[in-house]
Specification:
single chain, about 220 residues, mainly alpha
Length: about 220
Amino acid sequence: MSAQIFPRNANAIFLASLFGLVMLVVGIVAAMVGFYLSPWYTDVGIAPAQPVPFSHKHHVSELKIDCRYCHATVEKAATAGFPATETCMSCHSQVWTTSPLLEVVRTSYQTGEPVVWNRIYDLPDFVYFNHSVHVAKGIGCSSCHGRIDQQQLAAKAQPLYMGWCLGCHRAPEDYIRPREEVFNMEWDVNALSLAQRQQLVIEYQIPTDGRLTNCFVCHR
């Protein structure tokens, strides 16, 4: 009779070790997914430092300044555009003329050097996005930027993952609004029935045959 090579509890030790290894892998994967979806990775809700502490809440909600006054190219170009210093000074040559918070703006105006803002939404080079197309098709500012009119300091509202973008491309009727409401931050999609929104999709000639989910639409 051959001698016992492994101890009697070897099987139990092996199974426990295997279970522990599986749980370790699951834990690592869960931690990675959690980090990938967290604000530490997506920057959602985090306002980056800016050369001027510009408040959208003050300018949009309180002063009722239209988005297009500062983002002048949003209806006609791929980018919404940062406001020129001259735009800022059209008001601040008269108000807050000595505020230290606006020293950067005054210096920019005097020297001609533009203010260097830190981007909040910075898409990768392999992603194509056109603001003017989305505005023309009835997609409102708040659909992507959230209630930026309520933010003291601008922060990212959406992670901009591909799946999030595809959600709108697959069902534009869930997000579309009349063109005249695009810049209305308080617009509620339920203000129109589903049938009315579907009619807007037809009226604005938005493809519903799957073309909007083709790779080349965003990756060119």
